[in-house]
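User: Predict the full complex structure for these chains.
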Amino acid sequence: MSTGPNLLKSKLQLVWINLLDLGSAWISTLSTTSPSWLKRFFVHEKPTAILRPTTEGLELVEAGGFRPLEPGSKETARLSKSHHIEVALRPDQVFQRQRWLPLASSRRWRSTLDLDFQSNAPFSANEVISDVHLVEIAPTTKRGLIKHGVCKVETVKDALEKCREVGIIPNRVGIFDTDTDSLHFNFLPRTAFGHFSKKANWTNIGMMGLIMAFGVFSTTAYLNQLSGHEEDMQVRVAASKARALPVLQQQEEAINLIEEDKFLRERFSDRRRFLNVYEELTLSLPQGTQLESLNYNPGLVRITGYTDNSDTIIGDLEAAQLVERAAFTAPLRRNTQHNRDHFQIEVSLSNTSEQIKLTELAGR
Amino acid sequence: MSFYISPSIRQDVRKAWAGLAALVLIIGSTLTWLVLHKGTTTKANLAQLEADLIKWTSIERSADLVSENLETASQSGLRHVATLYAESETQAGSRVQTLIRRALERAGLEVKSLQALDPVGHEAVKSIGVKVVFVAPVDDLNIALRELGNTTPRLTIDKVNIRQVSGNRRAAARNAPRQLEINADIYAYVRALP
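Assistant: Here is the predicted structure of the two-chain assembly.
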């Protein structure tokens, strides 16, 4: 009884087999339908030579009959080098039958027919070798007529031994079909690449591989060069940044100092500072004036007091450089005892006052 | 060996070649995109790095000039005269109070009260203020103000209220000098506060 992981494993195997089937079918379709110039590029087109094993050795099948092949002869060497060698077994050496089966891959047809054969024949799977051949398709039923061929392993080994004795390595072992005048089946071990390697035009493939390798190499080298340059630049930028950061810090410090200096210059060069205002106001007040109170806020001064010259006090104050406007904020009150006027004045200070020299301030 | 393939695929040659073309197109375009993307990204990074290198190198080259500027700025006489160095507001406040007290002492006056004001922040420097109240004979007011104005570091008198607290007719009869009460907000600019 199959467990969960085993079931999954077998399903994955099934998917893999189906993918392989599809891939092999696809590649086969492309290879069989590819244009001749493309085929010639990849594969050496060789004429086919069909051989027949006999009790004495091998015979070459020709139009006029059969000709025995001598071991080590020039002809044998020529055939081996320049021909696609196929070995045709006798029809009585291969068990054949035909079945209509649903359209599927050759692998599936073969496994299905093998299972059917082995359940009825007195041979184990190791003793026989099989293959299938598609004879025809019925489009209406979507079924194919499949010819199934089974051959004893001993028979194939015997044919291969005869080839070896003569000095030939065959590309295919099957049976000759007189109807189609071609070989059916292939009872050689199924190594697709090995079969291809015998026919491949390695010069062209190698050249193509070299061109592709050169393309890959040059692209990779170009990208590596760019990456190397980038890494180099990163190192240089990091080093430069490390040297520049203290400079930036110094620059920031200098800017702060300059801003601070500017701020202080603005503050200390403002003539409307209290000490300047006090000095100028007291000097501007007319003779016979006595202050009772003074209230200073930046830009505005309020003063109260007594004066003998109430007629000129406003004019005298407004004559001062720092004063923009001076005005009574209450009516004058006459003090009869002192014979003086009590005043309340509001003084607005000028916005555009003359700036004092900073060196003067610093030196004070 | 020959492949016996599914007739449905074998017959649909167009599909097989279209599949190959699609595969080649997908793989080719993916590889091309990867190479182009990598190249473009790296080139953009290089351009950015070159710009950064120019920036940092130019900053690096201006080290002498910056150093000179810093030295010039730090040697400003005004800064040394006009600002107070302190490590905390408490320390700064205490130093401002001491400055005011000593200035008034030099004028022969005593402080009536001192009260710390909230610090005022400016972009470059901070002002630490004190509300001070002192009484001065009218004749000594100018001396007191001059002393307050001549401290190092400099003090800034922001708001002032001067009023006469004695000097009525009886005081005048005794020839006693008029007494003024001065109420002022005095600030010092402080550097290096955290």
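Residues 358 and 364 of chain A are 10 Å apart (CA to CA).
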